């Protein structure tokens, strides 16, 4: 199919050309004396993105799932109780992993489309007077439903109940796109992956651990080898890794961190919010509903759009892909067929997202959803135009004078007739 694929799933996201160029390198010796000059600064810049001064980042050749496992296995022991809410596919999968690792998971089930139930977390923590709960698992951004939850709120719940449990946060689809404050919010283990806000291919599982979490390493008894913090800490302290790292991914991460810090994290978050707001206004103009059940839970990295009764959301996705070369996110598990998702995170701007909105409109009309052509695109355009920062004045070259009509009797000359 001619033209480029429009990738608007909520991960993997577009990899900027600048990052692709940085990754296009010959292989090199990861034991050389020069290697620490690549690796060591990356860890310092990661701390800026997590907004921590005392936390320690770890990079594993994995995905966010590997980072989940690392956070659990380096701090907990078989039979330890953890508290977690299940309100979407990814919160469900983290719970499933904890159970399969031999942890005792107290599950708080909530409606898909709602955020994490802070009040129920607090009730469970208050009832745990013997402090059997060793960790709280909290999904910051539930990608399956387009919902963002309040990390500061769960920290308040822990503080108000004076509960010592670790706070583990899944920030796979939020960190580097939505404001995240590890130190301020008292997060003990923050988990993410390379293929979302960091604008890289999948392949790096990233964990940042607080000093409190690191202090539990020696007494943790869950099995670990590949994801062992101890091996990583020892090697990283000298600028190396305990096993072969992905050198192209490290060069790409160095470049993506440079891009994030050049733009400024607050500007990155503001850009994501503007793009998300425009998308939500497009959905409203289409006459459709969000999966997120209240504006306070709206995600700035992915919008999950409910399709009308009698329509299969998977058909919208299939038509968009096969006819318009547009990749949209599918509904997962209990949301399969009930919605489609537009990812809007990472390296993108208004014009790129307008292409996704336009393609989604055409695909919806193709499968029988009655939307007015151009309605969503127009709503997003008007919002983005009205909220754009004014451009600085520039001195423009003078306009060329208007051509004058030939004088009477002058010989007519044909311009441009030759090749």
What characteristics describe this protein?
globular; single chain; 419 residues; 14 strands; alpha/beta; 13 helices; 5-stranded mixed sheet; 7-stranded mixed sheet
Mean pLDDT: 96
Radius of gyration: 25 Å
> What fraction, in percent, of the residue positions are helical?
25-40%
Which overall shape is indicated by the principal axes computed on the Cα atoms? globular
End-to-end distance, in Å? Answer: 34 Å
Category from helices, strands and their pairing: alpha/beta
What is the helix/strand order?
A: EHHEHEHEHEEEHEEEHHHHEEHEEHH
Any low-confidence stretches, pLDDT <50, length ≥5? none
**What does the main sheet amount to?**
7 strands, mixed
Helix count from the secondary structure assignment: 13
Q: Taking strands numbered 1, 2, ... along the chain, how are they ordered across the largest sheet?
A: 2-10-9-8-5-3-4
Could you tell me the strand content as a percent range?
15-25%
Strands, total number:
14
Give an overview of the whole structure:
It is a single chain. The protein has 419 residues and is of the alpha/beta class. It contains 13 helices and 14 strands. The chain has helices spanning 17-23, 36-50, 64-73, 89-100, 118-127, 151-160, 211-215, 229-236, 247-263, 265-286, 313-324, 350-366, 375-387; strands at 6-8, 56-61, 81-86, 104-109, 133-139, 141-142, 147-148, 166-170, 189-193, 204-209, 289-290, 302-306, 326-330, 339-343. The strands form three sheets. Strands 2-10-9-8-5-3-4 form a seven-stranded mixed beta sheet, with helices on both faces. A five-stranded mixed beta sheet has the order 1-13-14-12-11, sandwiched between helices. Helix 4 (89-100) links the parallel strand 3 (81-86) and strand 4. The model has no long low-confidence stretch (mean pLDDT 96).
């Amino acid at each position: 199919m001619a033209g480029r694929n429009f990738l608007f799933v909520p991960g993997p996201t577009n990899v900027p050309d600048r990052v692709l160029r940085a990754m296009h390198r010959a292989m090199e010796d990861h034991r050389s004396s020069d290697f620490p000059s690549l690796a060591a600064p990356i860890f310092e810049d990661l701390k800026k993105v997590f907004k921590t001064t005392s936390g320690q980042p770890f990079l594993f050749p994995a995905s966010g799932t590997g980072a989940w496992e690392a956070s659990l296995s380096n701090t907990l022991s078989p039979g330890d109780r953890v508290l977690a809410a299940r309100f979407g596919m990814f919160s469900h999968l983290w719970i499933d992993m904890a159970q399969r690792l031999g942890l005792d998971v107290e599950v708080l089930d909530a409606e898909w489309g709602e955020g994490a139930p802070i009040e129920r977390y607090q009730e469970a923590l208050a009832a745990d007077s013997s402090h059997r709960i060793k960790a709280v698992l909290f999904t910051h951004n539930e990608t399956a439903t387009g919902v963002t939850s309040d990390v500061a709120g769960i920290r308040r719940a822990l503080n108000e109940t004076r509960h010592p449990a670790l706070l583990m946060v899944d920030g796979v689809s939020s960190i580097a796109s939505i404001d995240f404050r590890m130190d301020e919010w008292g997060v003990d283990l923050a988990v993410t992956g390379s293929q979302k806000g960091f604008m890289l291919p999948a392949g790096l599982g990233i964990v940042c651990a607080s000093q409190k979490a690191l202090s539990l390493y020696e007494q943790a008894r869950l099995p670990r080898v590949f994801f062992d913090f101890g091996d990583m800490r020892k090697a990283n302290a000298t600028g190396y890794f305990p096993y072969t790292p992905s050198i192209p991914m490290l060069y790409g991460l160095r470049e993506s961190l440079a891009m994030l810090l050049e733009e400024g994290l607050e500007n990155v978050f503001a850009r994501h919010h503007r793009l998300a707001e425009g998308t939500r206004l497009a959905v409203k103009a289409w006459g459709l509903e969000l999966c997120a059940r209240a504006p306070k839970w709206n995600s700035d990295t992915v919008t999950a759009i409910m399709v009308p009764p009698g329509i299969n959301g998977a058909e919208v996705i299939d038509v968009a892909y096969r006819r318009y070369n547009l990749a949209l996110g599918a509904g997962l598990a209990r949301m399969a067929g009930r919605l489609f998702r537009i990812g809007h995170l990472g390296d993108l701007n208004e014009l790129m997202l307008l292409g996704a909105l336009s393609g989604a409109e055409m695909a919806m009309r193709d499968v029988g959803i009655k939307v007015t052509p151009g309605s969503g695109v127009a709503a997003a355009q008007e919002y983005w135009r009205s909220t754009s920062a004014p451009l600085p004045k520039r001195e423009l070259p003078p306009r060329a004078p208007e051509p004058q009509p030939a004088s009477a009797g002058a010989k007519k000359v044909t311009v441009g007739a030759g090749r």
